[in-house]
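This section describes the prediction task in plain terms. A model, or a person checking by hand, is given the sequence of a single protein chain and must write out its three-dimensional structure as a string of tokens. No templates, partner chains or ligands are provided. The sample shown here is typical of the held-out split.
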Amino acid sequence: MELDKRMIQLRIDIIERDLKEIEEISRLRKITYRDELALKYALLECIEACIDISNHIISVKGFRRPMDYKDIFTILEENNIIDRDLSQRLQNMVKFRNILVHKYAIVDMKIVLKIARKDIVDIKEFIKEILKLIA
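The expected answer:
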């Protein structure tokens, strides 16, 4: 079975669209409640798309089955798809994803904004590595 480049590219398109939105919102001086919702959802969608891409790669390549979402990026690291540093940073994104999904009532917007302003470079780096893989 081969990697489904079309599926991967569709997920990358979603990520790139969301990253533009994240960057636009994170530059605002005053962020409204609607902006907060959009920011959280765009970050969640980016992380989910990274997970989807990674799961597809793991499945097609026949790598070991992940124990949880964080393990997905460990598996990519073990198989030299991404390096250790990026793997660790993406695992932290998964922790953030879990907070967004399961502890949404206590999400600290300062942390969301920090991730939106600084940590989205990790998602961009992930995309670069995946594009190399499917080239």
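For orientation: The first helix runs from residue 5 to 26.
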